[in-house]
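Worked problem 6 (solution included).
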Amino acid sequence: MDKQNSKFRWVVFASVLFTYLIMSSQRTAPGLVIDQIMNDFHVTATTIGLLTSIQFFVYTGLQIPMGLLADRFGPNFFLITGAFLTGLGTIIYSFGTHEFVLFLARIMTGTGDATIWVNTVLILSQWFSKKEFTRLIGVAAATGSLGFLLATVPFAAWITLLGWRGAFFSAGLLLCLCGIWLYFILVKKPKQSIFVKNNIQREKTWVLLRRIFSTRQAWGLFFCHFGIVGTYVGFISSWAVPYGMNMYDMTRSHASQLILIGLVGALIGAPLSGWISSRLNSIKRPYIVVHIILILCWSAFLLFKGNPPLHILIVLFFIIGLAYGANALTFACVRQSFPLHESGIVSGFANTGGFLSAVLLPSIFGKILDYFESASGGLSAGYFYGFITPAAFSIIGLIGVSIIKERERMREEKSISN
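Solution. The predicted structure is:
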């Protein structure tokens, strides 16, 4: 089959992106039922923070290894397996009777989730020409935000209809069906092997990794992604809905609309930041402005002692989402700063920074809530001091983007040194 000229490539495109949509929704969907999990299992906020973090911890740790494995054995096996793992993990989560089972389920979900992005990129690069790929990769990236969007009001309504166990069971079953469908689409129909073994020299890989880990540019990208991704993803996946319910007496559905507002901002922020960057012919300058705005937004929660007026809260969620949408500039800078054959590993390294932040924030926030609740400070004081965490993380992001060098600046310094 001539993949890049076949009409079947659009079936592949739709199938892979639909799977990505459902898988990405399960990153944040558990945040909708935190209060019910705490009541049903009698666990503390610290435990909930760890439960949220464990999935992102697994996802983070597997980013670079997954890229290396996909290069060696091909993307088909890992994407199909990832869909099944995420589906089974979600089903187990719905049947959980003990907090240990919930942790096991989220580890499985995180492992499956870690396969999706790297292998989606590789599959699309196989089935589409370079010109088509450049256009479609942006659509693929936006699918992740749409998955987060699915895990707000629509999934909250599904939970209201079926209960939280029924809603997660149906989502897990759908993902398992996606895994079966992907097997027919990627392997059976085009008559491809599920494994495509490539001979890669490991020594060269480790030399490359050591060089990347020792460069200032890579660490700048790591820290700027740390500040912009984790503060948003880590908060909305854990404490955003409980925050709306506890501090503003919202229903679960209304509290999930706060996340929806942020996601609308994120969907606007991605193309807007790219357009502004192109007009200014600069990545660093607009990215610095984005990080400064992010710091001001999280600091506003501290200014209002964790409880800003509702109309200001809505604006803050929208702007924080808008800033999060600009995180694509991290990968634009990767393409600008590193050779094409190194950009995948560097992208994985930068993405590791973003999701490391998403691992740390829910746990730290949960510990702060537990401390002030037990110290009779109440949830109001807990949320106030909890917002110090995303504010501090966003400052780290500003430091990271400040040490990044633009391509033109790098060329100038190289010419001077010569």
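Discussion: The chain has 19 helices and no strands.
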